Amino acid sequence: MRLLIDAGNTRLKWRLDQQGDVVTGGACLFDSRQWLDELSPFGARIESISVSTVISEARRSVLVSQLVDLSGAPISFYWAESLRGGLRNAYSDVEKMGADRWHAMYAAWQQGLDGFAVVDAGSAITVDYVTGDGDHLGGYILPGKQMMLRSLQQDAARIGFESIDAGAGDPGRSTTECVQHGLVWLWEGLIRHLVADCERYRLQRIVCTGGDAVALLAAGLPGQHEPDLVLSGLAAIDSEAAGS
Ligand SMILES: Nc1ncnc2c1ncn2[C@@H]1O[C@H](COP(=O)(O)OP(=O)(O)OP(=O)(O)O)[C@@H](O)[C@H]1O
Ligand SMILES: CC(C)(CO)[C@@H](O)C(=O)NCCC(=O)O
Ligand SMILES: [K+]
């Protein structure tokens, strides 16, 4: 069995597969031990572990020791690359790109020959554009929903608000409404930009992943939801590495 892990700044996603068939999988907060509890019955049968991660080196060494305790299987970390299977990274310094972005792009690239945008609405929101020829045009990094709300709450003395979910983007008439509606207004702007860029760069599809993907789609993002995009890209790259 092969264990695949996508370790983000907020959550850890895992998938256990055997010859391409999913045995089990899930997602939990990075610092919770839920994933270890769910995987421990399989520990002895795990043959290899592959990881895509954007966490700090300190947290990565914690992750490695947890994985070593779980299973004696070899651990491989996969990072962003310049080129793979016709997909070309726009970064000149590819080591600086988050592995999750590259793995998500690679999964979407393997789905078809048309141009696409990948939106990963996680701790941070990333947007990446790829043409039908496999050229990554570049992308954007924005604060994610929780990050944005947390910074408003922590870094501004007089911004206090309670619930954060609203469907409206009209001008707010209280602090809570101004923050709630501000987020909707910002996301509507993001969606408008994305749609205009897809037209401009002739990208036919928008693929959306991450913890806030459903909310972004509900806010009007015209895309397809692929919750496991990063894990799928990681799985494909790991299979290629095993076959070579
Ligand atoms: N059950 C949940 N627990 C935590 N966050 C959630 C949950 N459901 C939705 N979210 C939202 O998902 C976001 C985190 O998304 P995700 O798990 O994709 O991030 P991540 O992969 O850890 O982050 P990144 O890759 O950007 O470091 C949070 O900002 C939050 O708004
Ligand atoms: C932007 C995040 C946090 C999104 O998970 C991640 O992809 C990352 O840490 N990236 C490094 C910077 C970059 O991609 O240019
Ligand atoms: K992510």
Automatic annotation (TrEMBL):
Protein name: Type III pantothenate kinase
Subunit structure: Homodimer.
Family, similarity comment: Belongs to the type III pantothenate kinase family.
Function field: Catalyzes the phosphorylation of pantothenate (Pan), the first step in CoA biosynthesis.
Keywords, in A-Z order: ATP-binding, Coenzyme A biosynthesis, Cytoplasm, Kinase, Metal-binding, Nucleotide-binding, Potassium, Transferase
InterPro entries in UniProt: ATPase_NBD, Type_III_PanK
Record-listed ATP binding positions: D6, A7, G8, N9, T10, R11, L12, K13, S123
Gene: coaX
Active-site residues, as the UniProt record annotates them: D100
Lineage: Bacteria, Pseudomonadati, Pseudomonadota, Gammaproteobacteria, Pseudomonadales
Keyword Secreted among record annotations: no
GO terms, biological process: coenzyme A biosynthetic process
